[in-house]
Amino acid sequence: MNDKTAKLIRLYAKKTGLSERVLKKEWLASDSRLRFQKRQEFFAQLTSKKSSKLSSQKNSKK
Predict the structure, then answer these.
(1) Where are the domains of the chain?
(2) Is pLDDT above 90 for 54?
(3) Distance of CA 10 to CAs 1, 13, 18, 59, 62, Å?
(4) Contact at 8 Å (CB) between 45 and 12?
(5) Which of 12, 34, 41, 49 could bridge across to 30 with cysteines, CB 3.0–4.6 Å?
(6) Rounded-to-integer distance, Cα 6 and Cα 20, Å
(7) Is the pLDDT reported for residue 14 higher than 90?
(8) Which DSSP string corresponds to 9-58?
(9) What pLDDT does 48 receive?
(10) What is d(CA 20, CA 30) in angstroms, rounded to the nearest whole number?
(11) Residues 10, 20: contact at Cβ < 8 Å?
(12) In this structure, what is the dihedral angle of CA atoms 34, 36, 39, 41, given to the nearest 10 degrees?
């Protein structure tokens, strides 16, 4: 696991309230196809939450 993946898992765990340790164990036990799928899922959920926060902040400033 590289630094970018560790950071992605850490951010995902923080946002969802899941255990970072459990996510990392699952990650290390997964094959490459499942890792790719999880990485896409984590990234999609993190970016959708960030974009919804940004849009709500823009609307509140108006």
Answers:
(1) 3-61
(2) no
(3) 12, 5, 10, 29, 33
(4) yes
(5) 34
(6) 9
(7) yes
(8) HHHHHHHH---HHHHHHHHHHS-HHHHHHHHHHHHHHHHHHHHHHHHHHH
(9) 83
(10) 15
(11) yes
(12) -70
pLDDT value for 49 = 63
Amino acid, res. 36: F
**Percent of the chain's residues with pLDDT above 90:** 66
Residue 20 tokens read as 């970072």
Which run of H or E residues covers position 60? helix 32-61
Structure token digits, residue 35? 């890792």
The C-alpha angle with vertex 16 and arms to 30 and 53, in degrees rounded to 5, equals: 125
